[in-house]
């Protein structure tokens, strides 16, 4: 379970203790990671749908949406998360995210890339500001991507 979910082995062991000896609180990301393991993965050791996964695809989708003028505040409201979380994913500061959040980002990107920000009531000045910031940030993001490709052992 630890290998598939990306959660530390000791934490999984603590969660599997009898009810009275389990931790009083479980972080939402930990619960999502463990509950996101499909049953078939446990039996076949299939790693296709882990509880946690790399954030590269989500980061690229968020950067693409920003470059097309979608403000982070709008995206955060649609995804029911914080702007800080989305900014951390987009800037590659957050290397892993829950399967659930990745799926939400991919679904939203598919819908929004087929439309314009104005179609969703976003003012032109907000869209321009998001696009300008994303284009200024793009070289930094691409530089981090090339660094990760060059030094994969540091990322793990």
How would you characterize the overall build of this protein?
By secondary structure, the chain is mainly alpha-helical. The protein is 63% helix and 4% strand. It is built from ten helices and two strands. It has helices spanning 2-5, 9-15, 28-35, 39-44, 56-67, 72-79, 83-90, 99-112, 124-150, 152-155; strands spanning 52-54, 96-98. It has a two-stranded antiparallel sheet with strand order 1-2. α5 (56-67) packs parallel to α8 (99-112) and α6 (72-79) packs across α7 (83-90). The radius of gyration is 18 Å and the shape is elongated. Residues 149-156 have low confidence and may be disordered.
H/E element order:
HHHHEHHHEHHH
The whole-angstrom Rg is: 18 Å
Give me the side-by-side strand order of the main sheet. 1-2
Give me the number of helical elements. 10
- What distance separates the N and C termini? 18 Å
Helix content: 55-70%
Low-confidence runs of at least 5 consecutive residues: 149-156
What is the approximate shape?
A: elongated
Estimated structural class? mainly alpha
How would a textbook summarize the main sheet?
2 strands, antiparallel
């Amino acid at each position: 379970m630890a290998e598939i979910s990306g959660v530390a082995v000791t934490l999984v062991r603590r969660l599997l203790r009898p009810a009275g000896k389990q931790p009083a609180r479980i972080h939402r990301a930990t619960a999502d990671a463990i509950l996101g393991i499909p049953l078939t993965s446990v039996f076949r050791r299939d790693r296709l749908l882990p509880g946690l996964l790399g954030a590269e695809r989500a980061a690229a989708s968020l950067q693409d949406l920003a470059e097309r003028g979608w403000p982070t505040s709008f995206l955060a409201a649609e995804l029911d998360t914080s702007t800080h979380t989305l900014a951390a994913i987009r800037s590659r500061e957050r290397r892993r995210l829950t399967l659930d959040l990745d799926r939400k980002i991919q679904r939203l990107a598919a819908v929004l890339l087929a439309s314009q920000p104005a179609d969703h009531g976003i003012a032109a000045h907000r869209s321009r500001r998001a696009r300008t910031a994303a284009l200024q940030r793009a070289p930094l993001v691409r530089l981090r991507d090339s660094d990760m490709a060059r030094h994969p052992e540091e990322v793990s």
